[in-house]
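Narrative summary of target 7.
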Amino acid sequence: MKLLAKFNLILGLVLGAGLAIAAAFSHYLLQNNGREEVLRQARLMMEAMRSSRDYTTNQVKPLLVNQQEHQRSFLPQTVPAFAATETFDYLRAKYPDYEYKEAALNPTNPRDRAADWEADIIRTFRNPRSTAKELLGERDTPVGRSLYLARPISADPPCLECHSTARAAPAAMVRRYGPDNGFGWQPNEIVGAQIVAVPMAVPVRMANQAFQTLIIYLGAVFLASLILLDVVLLLTVVRPLRRLSTMADQISVGRMDIPELPVRGKDEIAVLADSFNRMRRSLDRALKMLGS
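Modeled conformation, tokenized:
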């Protein structure tokens, strides 16, 4: 194997290993950044829904209470959970893959009943040994991988006005939803969870596209660097050594009339060429002395 080929093999292995490490690290960073973006969206959505609940409690409910009492009817718009869910449904009209639910084990409204995986989250919050105020996780859905963010819902004193017993609850609410569901809540008991689910497909796809683009650029830099190093090695190492090899071959067959090698600089190859020139002159003088 020629010297340049050996250099190419060594450089290829070193640069290839560096490229592989850089690619693996970049892939990790891009995927992690994609997940952080999904989590940021989930937290933003959660805070938006909490704001909707607060708005309903502080501004909408006081306006509707008198009307509700006058008509002796139940207006679900006064319920913060109902308002947040309805608000999010308008968002889902444009972004159907996003989900928000105030899931409960024993809800008044049947649509809020927790699915199996949501019930597992609520039981985690209800575990006496658990101190978690927030849960993060991923799950497979029909539209792909989804990240969910969950926070517990506790039965605060205002909630017990409607959820302690059917007898104590507003009659209009009992007529609307029946006396069997949504009652028996205890003060400060974890009764449900706010759950936001955000699809990971778009950020992950963007991360993969960015990774592919990065690999293409890194590959181009790798090839350009290898070619540049080849040119430098050819001019500064391989070509001078090739001249030394050619002169040694000529001298070995008795040709002493070849010109001396040019000596440029003070590096190791220049020192070697100068030494080889001195050896040639010494050998030429020795042969002439022997001939005379």
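The first helix runs from residue 3 to 71.
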